Amino acid sequence: MAKIELRDVTVDFPVFTSRSRGLLNILFRYAQQEQRRVEASGLSGFRVHALRGIDLTLRDGDRIGLIGRNGAGKTTLLRVLSGVYEPTAGDIRIEGRVSSLTDIMLGMDMDASGYDNIILRGIVLGLTKAEAIRLIPEVEEFTELSEYLHLPVRAYSQGMLLRLAFAVSTAITPEILLMDEMIGAGDASFLKKAQVRITRLIDQVSILVIASHNSDILTQFCNKALVLDEGRIVAAGEVHECLARYGSPARDTVADGDGKVG
Amino acid sequence: MPVSVSSQTSQARRLRDDVVQSVLNWRFWTYLGWNDILKQYRRSFIGPVWITLNTAIFIVAFGLVGAQLFKISVEEYLPYFCAGHIIFTYLSTLINEGCTVYTSADAFLKQTPYPKIAFVFRVVWRNSILLAHNMVVILAVLLWSGHFAQVDWLAFLLGLAVTMLAASFVIAILGAVATRYRDIPMIVASIMQISFFVTPVIWRPEQLTERAQWLVHLNPLASYLEILRAPLLGEAASAQAWLTVLGIQAVLAVVFYVLYVAVRRRIVYWL
Predict the structure, then answer these.
(1) Which of A82, B217, B247, B268 is 20 to 30 A from residue B116's alpha carbon, by CA?
(2) Residue B68 burial (CB < 10 Å; 0-12/13-18/19+)?
(3) Are the C-beta atoms of residues A58 and A3 closer than 8 Å to each other?
């Protein structure tokens, strides 16, 4: 039984610049004057309110689509749900094994072989080495990389690399699955195969939360949607209603990068 | 990786969970640390052995000159300098890499709530494997100079265990502070550079005048160096060095605890 409960969750970000981050600057007076200047300019002391007063309960069977512009707080909310960000204020309770598939290549080593990377990626996903080794036959079969798996992955094409990362990342089934944009496996020939695999994974997890700008993805996989704007939930409910309310997110082609503050 | 998380849990409890989870997930950090070493082997035939070779060449070259400078026989000086240099490098690399323990793992920490201390252990583990590489040089020198039979292995391993624990505290403390204040790694790097000369690596404490002895007594690195080097040379580390080490250990533990209860949860925000 997986469950996530958020009560009045707020996330504040300190935004550091060389002025505030550098230790030496704190020792020097002028930094304080500088800080006063910025505070006066309305940036409220280098803080960004990424999420404000979020109340949310996720239960088994929930397939949530997060909708919102860049900077609305989608990535931040995903990080709160994963437990990475402990909220600045408010309460959160996460019950169940969470897996974030926001960066499916995390932990992979370009100089290591495909086989080594299956184990590395498995360990990064929380498996033991023995468990990771057990994934090998399935990954071999899905990726069709055969003898390439003996080569260092730097020799792979982008598509091959993605196939490998995708195969390992989707080989384990968490209770709660978080995704920032739908993950795929590159080249056209694999799209269908990858679709089948990700659909099967999503069917198996208790709770899915996916942030996406693609309305097709949201209508296909989600049974509820949340619209975020400036760190608040401004609408919640039926996917197509939320999509209509939000406008046409499919036109919003620029996907969220990792570097944004929320 | 935790299965159930609640923000109702106190920060002290969470710190305890973090440390316990880090220890239980030893497979995670030993594998990552080991892969850090393998990385150096993958594209060259002898990988980190290059570092060992460079160290060996430098130690022999300077050992010969140092023996002349201080008018000691090479058989006396070389083991002293060799053990001292390799151990000092171990200590200073641990401290320098401690500053980047979290900033270099930011992709990990932003995606999954890994226990933080696991990354601290990864740095200690990785550097201890490198020390094992360099131990070959020490052993060769000790065999050549005839000191090998006198090595007190038990005392050395005890010293090593104590040093690893201290290094874990230092890395955790520096890692948190340096993630927040990005000047720290540079400041630490220059301090470590100077430390090489004010720590008895090249010279012996007895060579200093009475008035300059504080350099050794007040230098924490000198005490850790002594508890590791003396057993290798078949000497007993002074009681004073051990007392200093234990004192430092206690202070580090308190600083670590207070700091982490206060800021552990903020570290990811600072990345």
Answers:
(1) B247
(2) exposed
(3) yes
Query: CB under 8 Å to A92, separation ≥6 — which residues?
Result: A4, A5, A6, A7, A9, A80, A86, B5, B6, B7
Where on the phi/psi map is residue B146: left (φ > 0), alpha (ψ -120 to 50), or beta?
left
Which residue of chain A has the CA closest to B263? A86
Task: Find, among A168, A166, A152, the residue nearest to A120 by Cα.
Answer: A168
Q: How many Cβ atoms sit within 10 Å of the Cβ of residue A196?
A: 10
Residue B167 CB contacts under 8 Å (≥ 6 apart), including other chains:
B91, B94, B95, B98, B124, B127
**Cα B78 to Cα B76: distance, rounded to the nearest angstrom:** 6
| CB A213 within 8 Å of CB A249 | yes
The answer to whether the CB of B179 falls within 8 A of the CB of B267 is yes
- CA dist B60 and B57 (Å) reads 5
Q: Residue A41's CB: how many other CB atoms inside 10 A?
A: 8
The pTM of this model reads 0.89
> Which 3 state secondary structure label does DSSP give A227?
strand
Tokens 């959160």 belong to: A92
Distance (Å, rounded) from C-alpha A3 to C-alpha A94? Answer: 6
The distance of Cα A75 from the centroid of its chain, to the nearest Å, equals: 6
DSSP state, residue A52: E
**Complex ipTM more than 0.90, yes or no:** no
Residues of B in contact with A256 (CB under 8 A): none
Give the nearest partner residue to B31 out of A98, A111, A123, using CB atoms. Answer: A123
Q: Which helix (H) or strand (E) holds B3?
A: none
The CA distance from A189 to the nearest CA of chain B, in Å, is 29
Structure tokens at A163: 């196939």
Judge: B1–A120 Cβ closer than 8 Å, yes or no.
Answer: no
**Pair of tokens at residue B3:** 């299965």
> Which is it for strands A63-67 and A207-211: parallel, antiparallel or unpaired?
parallel
Total residues found in chain A within this entry = 262
Using a CB-CB distance cutoff of 8 angstroms, which residues of chain A are in contact with residue B31? 119-120, 123, 129
